[in-house]
Amino acid sequence: xxxxxxxxxxxxxxxxxxxxxxxxxxxxxxxxxxxxxxxxxxxxxxxxxxxxxxxxxxxxxxxxxxxxxxxxxxxxxxxxxxxxxxxxxxxxxxxxx
Length: 97
Prior knowledge:
Layout: H1 2-8, E1 25-27, E2 32-34, H2 40-57, H3 76-86
Antiparallel strand pairs: 1-2
């Protein structure tokens, strides 16, 4: 589903360095890290993809255990607004990993 949205141009992953491919997601045992541009449109798309995944798989997204981490280049007001779009808290860093 994420790849489909990337192919459509709706989502763009992040570039770590100039010659590397874009990274949009990393999957761990039961965790997923998503890397997208910090825009309202991208986050609405991600939210929609996660809702579709939930409905199709029967595996519920635990929004209470979810959080958003933004680049230091995103100002605080934008972080707050974008966190509200996703409906998750915004944290400075994720301590679990």
